[in-house]
């Protein structure tokens, strides 16, 4: 009879642990998914901002006799612009390239309508994402225009402001959902742990009544919480990256190339899983340690 009772208790304990691990894994999977979306949304936002280019034009006055001197001057200006703080990437566009681009955009295959090299050479500049901010774009343009040799700087400021505002709005919504999922993770994991500790409330109180110290009672529960939190986190991460790998392979894009982003996300998910599990265990166990025996029947 005692053996059957022990087997029943072991099965119930195993079932309880499995339920807690599955709950932790599911919640952390959703939390990690929001983290991945947030990371990639930020990277994609930066990528779009880098596509909003600024054009810095050299003087239109051009004398073929001074071509060597002008080419040397433009090369020096190009190198200087590449070193400017707001500049992410710069591309030099010669007069010949500008003419070819103009003919292509107009659908013209002949040089009959163009004088030779009527378009000035220029530098196409992709700004760093933080300088696409409407509050900083004017500062960036002034820095570029101050470079000796640059005659004019043009950009579509209205488009930049619209894109920046829309991307910022989207990122705020994603961040808001991420915070919401974090709160849900705390609540759901806490409820799972409380149910598990509730099933052991009589064991906790019995240990206390026979003289066991609170630290001694808490220790095995905390160790178990760390193990369950770690297992749940690992399962959730395996499911997360398995689905993410399948998704990115289907669309042919790896999204974020910086592995440090994934590394910190893994640490965050594991840390959150273990922290919430341990904290919920301590709070739930402490509650029964402070309660009276009669309260155990009505908790």
TrEMBL record:
Residues in ABC3 transporter permease C-terminal domain copies: 177-292
Source domain of life: Bacteria
Family according to the record: Belongs to the ABC-4 integral membrane protein family. FtsX subfamily.
PANTHER family per UniProt: CELL DIVISION PROTEIN FTSX (PTHR47755)
Keyword presence, rRNA-binding: no
Biological process according to GO: cell division
Keywords (A to Z) from UniProt: Cell cycle, Cell division, Cell inner membrane, Cell membrane, Membrane, Transmembrane, Transmembrane helix
Functional note: Required for cell division and gliding motility.
Annotated protein name in UniProt: Cell division protein FtsX
Membrane-traversing stretches: 20-39, 170-193, 221-247, 262-289
Topological type in the membrane: Multi-pass membrane protein
Keyword Secreted listed: no
Annotated localization: Cell inner membrane; Cell membrane
Domain annotation FtsX extracellular: ranges: 74-153
